[in-house]
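TA notes, week 10

Several of you asked for a full example with nothing omitted. So below is the full record: structure tokens for the whole chain, then the designed sequence directly under it. When grading your own attempts, check the secondary structure regions first.
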């Protein structure tokens, strides 16, 4: 097999830089997570108090007042989802998702990895108040998953990295749909109409050949505010704007590629770690770990991530191969698919994000976070062990 990084660049093309940023971003994300845990346990209630400090932006009645955590979750994460939208658009136009046959297998694998964990959680928590979090274990954290792969070096073939990335992208699409469909509040029609009109204006600007960024940025802010006020989660505005970004050059500028190159490092190295700092803190004092051991919710999330993701991705992949709907990438063995499926259980960032949308009670959120931490840790260790021995 050709050596890295030459083979990786030839196999993945523009995705190689994306994978590199995600792998390095996973290290920063881990540091931010540890920092959040240390802060929460050292400061006690001070951690929550800091993130509940209100910040008001705007003038008079036009001002928007949110606490710091919501500014991170609703505003900064909209940029994260904008980058996700850009990546989805690029994959649909010129990447793996462009070729339906090549995309069929990882798409099927991703859907299996979303459906089975959600089903396991829904059955386990049926009839309880916590059943609203059924989508929490359905997500995969690409930064941590790719980071684990990066640690294994050339023991992981390029085709397997691309397979994981495609699964993660489809997983992101599913998460976006779930957030929009099931985790939005009551709709305010007038604001929703304004958001849609703003998206229409973006299309008009593109048709007029406007190449400067500031008009789009101004309209994008209006779309975000309107989406936030409409009851649809504000991060959906970021996704929509990303998907509307043209893949063809405008005024000689390759807008999509330029935006992705500029914003992806900011997302990977600043926004996502800041999100972890704001949301990953759990005070383990007061018997929290003991409560988690006996928590049905924590076990449901942990088992859904570890078992549901591993079985869902593996079973869907092998079923697709058996039915002739697709073939495994060159050089990829079935045992390595099992390793990737296990890594799919690292559901950190988006799982925490959906937790904040699904639950309000602090104790419930804490139990959910412990389940996410435990499930993600076990999945990461299991996936790394399988891939390390897979060759």
């Amino acid at each position: 097999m050709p050596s890295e990084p030459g083979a990786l660049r030839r196999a993945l093309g523009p995705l190689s830089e994306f994978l590199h940023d995600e792998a390095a971003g996973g290290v920063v994300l881990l540091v931010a997570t540890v920092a959040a845990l240390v802060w929460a346990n050292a400061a006690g209630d001070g951690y929550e108090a800091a993130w509940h400090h209100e910040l008001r932006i705007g003038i008079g009645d036009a001002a928007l007042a949110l606490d710091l955590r919501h500014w991170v979750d609703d505003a900064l994460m909209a940029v994260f989802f904008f980058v996700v939208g850009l990546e989805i658009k690029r994959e649909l136009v010129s990447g793996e998702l462009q070729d339906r046959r090549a995309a069929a297998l990882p798409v099927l694998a991703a859907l299996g990895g979303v459906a089975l964990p959600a089903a396991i959680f829904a059955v386990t928590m049926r009839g309880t108040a916590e059943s609203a979090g059924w989508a929490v274990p359905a997500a995969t954290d690409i930064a941590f998953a790719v980071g684990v792969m990066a640690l294994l070096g050339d023991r992981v073939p390029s085709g397997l990295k691309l397979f994981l990335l495609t699964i993660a992208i489809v997983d992101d699409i599913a998460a976006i749909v779930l957030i929009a469909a099931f985790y939005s509040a009551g709709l305010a029609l007038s604001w929703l109409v304004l958001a849609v009109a703003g998206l229409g204006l973006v299309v008009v600007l593109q048709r007029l050949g406007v190449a400067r960024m500031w008009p789009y940025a101004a309209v994008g802010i209006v779309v975000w505010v309107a989406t936030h006020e409409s009851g649809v989660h504000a991060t959906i505005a970021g996704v929509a704007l990303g998907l509307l970004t043209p893949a063809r050059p405008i005024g000689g500028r390759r807008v999509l590629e330029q935006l992705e190159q500029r914003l992806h490092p900011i997302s990977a190295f600043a926004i996502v770690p800041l999100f972890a700092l704001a949301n990953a803190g759990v005070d383990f004092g007061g018997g929290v770990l003991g409560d988690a051991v006996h928590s049905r919710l924590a076990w449901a999330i942990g088992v859904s991530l570890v078992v549901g993701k591993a079985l869902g991705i593996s079973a869907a992949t092998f079923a697709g191969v058996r039915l002739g709907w697709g073939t495994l990438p060159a050089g990829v063995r079935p045992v390595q698919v099992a390793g990737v499926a296990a890594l799919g259980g690292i559901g950190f960032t988006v799982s925490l994000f959906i937790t904040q949308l699904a639950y309000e009670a602090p104790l419930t959120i804490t139990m959910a976070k412990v389940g996410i931490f435990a499930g993600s840790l076990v999945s990461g260790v299991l996936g790394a062990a399988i891939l390390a021995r897979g060759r």
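The domain at 11-184+233-389 is CATH 1.20.1530.10 (Na+/H+ antiporter like fold). Use that as a sanity check on your answer.
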